[in-house]
Design brief:
Number of domains: 2
Strand content: 5-15%
Strand order of the largest sheet: 2-1-3-4
Number of helices: 9
Radius of gyration: 17 Å
Length: 205
């Protein structure tokens, strides 16, 4: 084996986000990872759902000890809940990877992970503070008062960047992944990802 972890994702935004996130071993409360490889699959979320297990077998099986499949529920073409798709993919992965392979399905999409209570979110999206950004989104009907995150997380990100006249790019997700507080993210899929990493790669005692 040449690496601890192979990750198959649905697009370049997710690729950059996972790369940035996995570099934060201390914040994730895991040991530093060696030889991480994050690949974006052509065909996006439907491709990961339908062909990702086979693709990952060809790409990672001989080189990486553990595997994650990460995709969005939105745009995947699936009608089942995220948890059901995860269970289906986990079962398919088990033949090759045993308990060393796992799927994470984000409901509805990657941008849900952006909207933690971190003070870095607002400035990274071009606003003076996260509170100002949240109030701005509430005024425009993109965030219900009292809700933990916007109604449509991706639309909220894009609206904020347009207002700030900042470029929409995969690098933006890498920057957010490096800066946003991980302790305040309450997203179910993010919790599953972190729990999996802690199970596989516990910190040294």
């Amino acid at each position: 084996m040449t690496g601890d972890l192979g990750v198959l994702v649905a697009d370049k935004d997710m690729q950059q986000a996972l790369r940035g996130l996995l570099e934060r071993s201390s914040s994730l409360e895991i040991r530093p990872l060696v030889g991480v490889r994050v690949e974006a699959m052509q065909g996006h979320d439907p491709a990961v759902r339908l062909r990702g297990v086979q693709f990952a077998r060809n790409v990672f099986a001989r080189t990486h000890a553990h595997l994650l499949l990460v995709m969005d529920l939105e745009g995947s073409g699936a009608s089942e809940p995220a948890e059901s798709i995860e269970a289906q993919l986990d079962e398919q992965l088990r033949a090759q990877w045993g308990e060393r392979g796992r799927a994470v399905v984000i409901d509805p999409e990657l941008e849900a992970w952006v909207w933690s209570r971190s003070p870095n979110v607002g400035p990274e999206l071009g606003f003076e503070s996260t509170e100002i950004l949240r109030n701005w989104l509430v005024e425009r009907g993109l965030w219900r008062p009292g809700a933990p995150k916007p109604i449509r997380p991706k639309d909220a990100v894009l609206a904020a960047l347009r207002e700030s006249r900042l470029q929409v790019s995969s690098a933006r997700f890498a920057a957010l992944a490096h800066k946003v507080s991980l302790r305040n993210c309450e997203d179910r899929a993010f919790g599953r990802l972190v729990a999996t990493l802690r199970e596989w790669f516990p910190p040294p005692r």
